[in-house]
Specification:
Mean pLDDT of chain B: 84
Number of domains of chain A: 2
Structural class of chain B: mainly alpha
Membrane topology (chain B): Multi-pass membrane protein
Distance between the termini of chain B: 17 Å
Order of helices and strands of chain B: HHHHHEEHHHHHHHHHHHHHHHHHHHHHHH
Bound molecules: adenosine-5'-triphosphate, magnesium ion
Number of strands of chain B: 2
Main location (chain B): membrane
Number of helices of chain A: 15
Oligomer: heterodimer
Protein name (chain B): Glycine betaine/proline transport system permease protein
Shape of chain A: globular
Number of helices of chain B: 28
CATH architecture of the largest domain in chain B: Orthogonal Bundle
CATH topology of the largest domain in chain B: MetI-like fold
CATH class of the largest domain in chain B: Mainly Alpha
Helix content of chain A: 25-40%
Strand content of chain B: under 5%
InterPro entries (chain B): MetI-like, MetI-like_sf
Largest sheet of chain B: 2 strands, antiparallel
GO cellular component, one term (chain B): ATP-binding cassette (ABC) transporter complex
Number of domains of chain B: 2
Chain lengths: 362, 664
């Protein structure tokens, strides 16, 4: 990220300091999930409409879909957050992506491979080596110690006990539970239990890391702390992450991109900033209304073209959020310079612009 | 219901319709009663027409044991093989725990192998009790096993223990295997559930007859009967426990790429372990409950001692052996609970850390065995030191008969003349068709046509297999006992609900009552009242009391505290509170308690055949002595059907009531 690349400045068209669009890790197209005994008929109905059928039309056929026509591309190395209220279909979506649930219709590509065409055996293999999952209620095995729980996925794969435990020890250190290896889950606090869940999901060094409301069962202070550590971990590990939450603040804190779900539909996909500046509809707008805008808006979105010959009070990166530089911007009259990676001047942020954001004025 | 509330005219119509139905039913019953004088089959079809199901069943079992062949081997070979397989561990345990054996060495000499010395076994038990349950359990073990030793019950107790040691693992493994199958396949589950229902309502005696015919008389068939009796709850518990495993854990299994087998052994069974333990405990308790009954088809040990003493009316001996079984039951119950708790405690907090218990106890037993080989006299507690209390008890019985006879007999006679006999007469007088009609109407009003057909059909089965009269005697005995038990139980439950302490006391007492094998209840009753319907009734009441107390107290205590507070705020006196608020709300729960009471009363009913009743239980008992499979099974089914009729009706009523109140 911080490395200067000599090519960066020359690359012409799109804003040069955008990360080059990363390759896609996991993508789904036209994904539907309908529950019930009649799923086969539902599939025919949906496919009969080429995968596009309105809610009412489907209901007339007697079906209610938990996930409707979802199109998602998760890029390698990003934190992709799925946000929605209870019952909006988030869990169903993530379970379809990991094929814990068989989607009713649609296609699913993981690492260039068609997941729906995989045999059960290949699928077991993919899950063993490529995916890791963290559960809302931790899903720790009560009869195993912390060490046993973290080593569990490795032992299932047939890794020798010694190697499995060595790896598990490392993971336990990583999540900051060193010294608690021989404790049983019942003796741990909620936050500690979820650390075990996280360590376990990382034990197999998966590429794709799935987290279904991992912090929802924790109280707010612990949740905050866990979020920070989660970000720290991700900076070290650089996994591709799908993270489910019903808490918009959490989504904004963690996400590179957010998908907002509303009764089975994916309403909008975008960066936190996109959602705040360009909400796709009133539903999204309602969510973003209470967001502290300074935490979301970046320098790029409030800058204006730099005036000739101004003297700047300092530099900011285009992706820096207003909260990061608000104090500096307000201290002095002089504007801040927005500079790309290689130091090219992209624009300037004025003191008034920052104050307007802080005052939450449109 | 909402109809009655919202629309009074419709409500009135409904009520009128309901009155009409009941009036018509009553009239029909009276007519049937009058008609029964002329048409015998309305009263009881036994003399006119009986469906020969008994004969069919007997013939079927005969065919099984004589003719059925699977090509390479016959059914008889199969049963023999099964018996042989079970025989091996059983005789092994009996040999090393109780009897010892003689090994021929060459022509003349034999080597006498004594059993493991009693003190080593006692020490092993006490040690385990201390490790698992601490000092209190260890003291219990010393007291219970000490009793066995000092009062001369050791040898028999070890025979009983041997059969438990084999029956419990077999029952647990079999129950778990079936439970796992049922968990995996809905089809198996659907097939198994009604069979389990039936097995738990068919009285124990009825199992004995076919087992006797197929496996012969002896300790192994007794054990097979025990396993059959003790297994159903394990199947059920396993199914429930596996279904209760959190869906997240199943997903975890799939996400970590578990195979089916890994899923079962590494996720499902370990995380269901606490619930499975409940099942194991049940298997232990049911096996012990079966000890005496199984001795009717050849189990030795304490059960045999109790049974023979009861038959000979040697109260003292019976009491001693009965107490031994009771103590063994309580000890094994507590031990199993302590062990489960121990398994759930983290290793670091366990007692006797660093001691390999299995190795230690193995070494102890082996060492003691060598000592016993060298000094055989040590292996058995000297007869001269045994205390026999039976003369005292027999003396007490004589004393009671001499001094209290008049009072006891007066009570008994009074109840017999004014309550038991009139009720019995009445029950015998009611025509079966009238009863069936009444049941059908009740079933129909409570739930619908399906229930009506079910209950009436069951009544018809009883009538047309020629068992109506005996069934009515059962219903009468059971009915009165249930009435008394429920009254006492509900009153006790009311008291128990008043404070935490009273509740604790009640729960402990009731738990202890339920650990006692059903047979044990007969001993003191016979001691006081001799044999007959009256003694049977008392024994049934004592045995069936527990659920009524438990459910009442639980139902009353479980009420949401807001409701209680709200009624207190609206100025209810404690009495109004009880009658207007708590009882009506707790009624469904209490009804379930009474339902359980009925089930337990029925299971005890059959056992009271031993003290001379003339009901279905007697029928089963006679079938057992004659090895008549058909008679035994049909009479057993009749008992089961009585239980199921009341169960279905009560459950339907509870469901309706709960729906009215919208309690879940
Ligand atoms: N196994 C199932 N069978 C039938 N319906 C289901 C099933 N699982 C979920 N649903 C339904 O699908 C819809 C979406 O459920 P889902 O669990 O995906 O929501 P969610 O967004 O994860 O909610 P929460 O925040 O409560 O976890 C809900 O209406 C739910 O009732
Ligand atoms: Mg969810």
């Amino acid at each position: 990220m911080t490395q200067d690349s000599p090519l960066a400045d020359n690359a012409a068209a799109p804003p040069p300091d955008d990360d080059t669009p990363a390759e896609t890790k996991l993508s789904c197209k036209g994904l539907w999930k309908v529950f019930g005994a009649d799923e086969d008929r539902a599939r025919r109905v949906i496919q009969g409409h080429d995968g596009v059928i309105g809610r009412d039309a489907l209901e007339r056929e007697g079906f209610a879909a938990a996930v409707r026509n979802a199109d998602i591309d998760v890029r390698t190395g990003e934190i992709f957050v799925v946000m929605g209220l209870s019952g909006s279909g988030k869990s169903t979506l993530i379970r379809c992506l990991s094929l814990l649930l068989q989607p009713t219709s649609g296609e699913l590509i993981f690492d260039g491979r068609d997941l729906l065409g995989c045999s059960e055996k290949e699928l077991i293999d993919i899950r063993r080596h490529k995916m890791g999952m963290v559960f809302q209620h931790f899903a720790l095995l009560p009869h195993l110690t912390v060490l046993g729980n973290v080593a569990f996925p490795l032992e299932i794969q047939g890794v020798s006990r010694f190697d499995a435990e060595e790896r598990a020890h490392k993971m336990i250190e990583l999540v900051g539970l060193g010294g608690r290896e021989t404790d049983y889950p019942s003796g741990l606090s909620g936050g500690q239990q979820q650390r075990v869940g996280i360590a376990r999901s990382l034990a197999t060094d998966p590429d794709l890391w799935l987290l279904d409301e991992p912090f929802s069962a924790l109280d707010p202070l612990i949740r905050r702390e866990m979020q920070d550590e989660f970000l720290k971990l991700q900076r070290m590990l650089g996994k591709t992450i799908i993270f489910i939450t019903h808490d918009f603040d959490e989504a904004i804190r963690l996400a590179d991109r957010i998908a907002i779900m509303h009764s089975g539909d994916i309403v909008q996909i975008g960066t936190p900033e996109d959602l705040v500046i360009r909400p796709a509809n009133d539903y999204v707008r309602d969510f973003t209304a209470d967001v502290t805008r300074a935490k979301v808006l970046s320098a790029r979105s409030i800058m204006r073209p730099a005036d000739e010959g101004t003297s700047f009070a300092g530099d900011v990166a285009p992706v820096d959020r207003v909260t990061d530089f608000a104090a500096r911007a307000i201290e002095t009259e002089a504007p801040l310079a927005v500079r790309g990676r290689s130091g090219r001047l992209l624009g300037q942020v004025d003191r008034e612009a920052v104050i307007r954001v802080l005052a939450e004025a449109e | 219901m909402s109809l009655t509330l919202s629309d009074t005219s419709a409500g009135g119509a409904l009520q009128r319709a309901s009155l009409l139905v009941w009036g018509a039913t009553l009239a029909a019953i009276v007519l049937l009663w009058i008609a029964a004088g002329r048409l015998g089959w309305i009263a009881d079809p036994a003399d006119v027409f009986v469906i020969p199901i008994e004969g069919w069943l007997s013939a079927f079992v005969d065919w099984l044991s004589d003719d059925l062949s699977f090509g390479l081997f016959t059914f008889r070979d199969l049963t023999r093989a099964l018996a042989w397989v079970l025989e091996i561990p059983l005789s092994f345990f009996i040999t090393i725990l109780s009897r010892g054996t003689e090994v021929p060495l060459g022509a003349e000499r034999t080597l006498t192998l004594p059993p493991v010395p009693w003190f080593a076994i006692l020490f092993a038990f006490v040690w385990l009790c201390w490790v698992w349950g601490g000092r209190r359990l260890a003291i219990l073990a010393i007291a219970a096993l000490g009793y066995l030793v000092v009062f001369g019950q050791w040898g028999s107790a070890m025979v009983t223990l041997s059969s438990i040691l084999v029956a419990v693992p077999v029952g647990v493994a079999g129950g778990m295997a079936l439970g796992i199958l049922a968990y995996r396949s809905d089809r198996v589950a659907r097939g198994l559930t009604p069979v389990l229902d039936l097995m738990q309502t068919v009285p124990i005696f009825a199992y004995l007859v076919p087992v006797l015919v197929l496996f012969g008389f002896g300790p192994v068939s007794a054990m097979i009967a025990t396993v059959i009796y003790a297994m159903p709850p394990m199947v059920r518990v396993t199914m429930l426990a596996l279904r209760g495993v959190s869906p997240e854990l199943l997903e975890l299994g799939r996400m970590t790429g578990c195979t089916r087998r890994q899923m079962l052994w590494r996720i499902l069974l370990p995380s269901a372990r606490p619930s499975l333990m409940v099942g194991v405990n049940q298997v232990i308790m049911l096996s012990l409950n079966m000890v005496i009954i199984a001795s009717m088809i050849g189990a030795g040990g304490l059960g045999y001692d109790v049974l023979t003493s009861l038959r000979r009316l040697e109260i003292g001996n019976g009491l001693q052996a009965g107490l031994a079984i009771t103590l063994l039951a309580i000890l094994l119950d507590r031990m199993s609970h302590a062990y489960f708790a121990y398994r759930e405690t983290p290793r670091a907090q366990r007692r006797a850390q660093g001691v390999n218990n299995a190795a230690m106890i193995g070494a102890l037993l082996a060492g003691a065995y060598v000592v016993g080989l060298i000094f055989p006299a040590l292996t058995i507690y000297p007869d001269a030191w045994v205390i026999d209390t039976s003369p005292f008890w027999d003396g007490l019985v004589t004393w009671i008969n001499l001094n209290l006879y008049d009072y006891l007999d007066a009570v008994k006679t009074f109840l017999l003349i004014y309550v038991l006999v009139p009720v019995k007469r009445f029950m015998l007088d009611v025509p079966w068709l009238a009863v069936a009609l009444l049941l059908a109407v009740v079933g129909w009003r409570l739930s619908g046509l399906r229930l009506a057909v079910t209950v009436a059909g069951m009544a018809a089965f009883i009538a047309f297999t020629g068992n109506w009269e005996k069934a009515m005697v059962s219903v009468y005995l059971c009915g009165i006992s249930v009435l008394i038990a429920s009254t006492i139980g509900i009153l006790w439950g009311l008291l128990a609900a008043r404070s935490d302490r009273a509740y604790g006391i009640a729960v402990t007492s009731v738990d202890t009552l339920q650990t006692l094998p059903s047979f044990v209840y007969l001993i003191p009753v016979v001691m006081l009242f001799q044999v007959g319907d009256f003694s049977a009734m008392i024994a049934i009441v004592l045995y069936a009391l527990a659920p009524a107390v438990r459910y009442t107290a639980h139902g009353l205590r479980r009420l949401p505290s807001e409701i209680v507070e709200a009624s207190r705020m609206s100025g209810c006196t404690p009495r109004q509170m009880l009658w207007r608020v708590r009882l009506p709300l707790a009624l469904p729960e209490i009804a379930l308690g009474i339902n359980q009471t009925i089930m337990m009363a029925l299971s005890m009913l059959v056992i009271t055949a031993l003290v001379g009743t003339s009901d279905l239980g007697q029928e089963v008992y006679i079938a057992l002595t004659r090895s008549n499979v058909g008679q035994g099974l049909v009479a057993g089914l009749c008992v089961a059907f009585i239980g199921m009729i009341s169960d279905r009706l009560i459950t339907a009523w509870v469901a309706r009531r709960k729906a009215q109140f919208r309690i879940e």
